[in-house]
Amino acid sequence: MKIGLTGGIASGKSTVSRFLQSLGAKVVDADEIAHELMKPKQKLWQKVVGHFGEEILKAEQEIDRDKLGTIIFNNPQQREKLDQLTHPIIISEIKARVEKLEQSYEIVIAEIPLLIEVGMIDFFAEVWLVYLKRTVQIKRLMQRDDINREAAVKKIESQMPLDEKKEYADRIIVNNGSQEELEKQVQKLWRKII
């Protein structure tokens, strides 16, 4: 079974992925794939540097994610351009890896922050959403990224609202509480699908 796991920034997707992995799921991480494809001189790296210029590079030729993030979070057109350059290649790689793993594993989870936005819903048997209250999300993002409230709100508002994402989810994992509570929910869900 192919399951797409999504949520917003700082919602706890990676924590849920780790729990699922410990229960026996095979996990594909879209962010890890994107990092791999963005390594110096790779196809995606060339496209991104070709558009945004070498000023987004660190000394060792890696893309400076903070610099690129500043550009795209403050300019919707540039964000759209980055998405146009990167999404088709990343989506293709995610699908290829999930399909390969599905031949050997009963349950394959793909952790994809923008699963709904990039139109991958139909690729999966189920879509799981990690959901949390906006106030909790802001607080966690401020702590995680060591940023102020205004910067956290700006990052959150650059994404599709979690309340909208709920409409597309087959199952919702609520992450307003402790990690122990989250783990119990994940275990309960896991028992339903195995």
UniProtKB/TrEMBL annotation:
Tell me the GO BP annotations in alphabetical order. Answer: coenzyme A biosynthetic process
Where, by residue number, does ATP bind? 10-15
Q: Does the keyword Ribonucleoprotein apply?
A: no
Q: Which Pfam families match?
A: CoaE (PF01121)
PROSITE patterns registered for this protein in UniProt: DPCK (PS51219)
Q: Which CDD domains match?
A: DPCK
- Please list the reactions this protein catalyses: 3'-dephospho-CoA + ATP = ADP + CoA + H(+)
Broad class of enzyme this protein falls into: transferase
Q: Which residue spans traverse the membrane?
A: none
Question: Keyword annotations for this protein?
Answer: ATP-binding, Coenzyme A biosynthesis, Cytoplasm, Kinase, Nucleotide-binding, Transferase
What molecular function terms (GO) are annotated for this protein?
ATP binding; dephospho-CoA kinase activity
Pathway, per record: Cofactor biosynthesis; coenzyme A biosynthesis; CoA from (R)-pantothenate: step 5/5
Location in the cell reads: Cytoplasm
Q: What is its EC number?
A: 2.7.1.24
Q: Which SUPFAM superfamilies match?
A: P-loop containing nucleoside triphosphate hydrolases (SSF52540)
Protein family according to the UniProt entry: Belongs to the CoaE family.
Matches recorded under NCBIfam families: dephospho-CoA kinase (TIGR00152)
What task does this protein carry out? Catalyzes the phosphorylation of the 3'-hydroxyl group of dephosphocoenzyme A to form coenzyme A.
Question: HAMAP family from the xrefs?
Answer: Dephospho_CoA_kinase
Entry's PANTHER family? Answer: BIFUNCTIONAL COENZYME A SYNTHASE-RELATED, DEPHOSPHO-COA KINASE-RELATED
Q: What is this protein called?
A: Dephospho-CoA kinase
Q: Which gene encodes it?
A: coaE
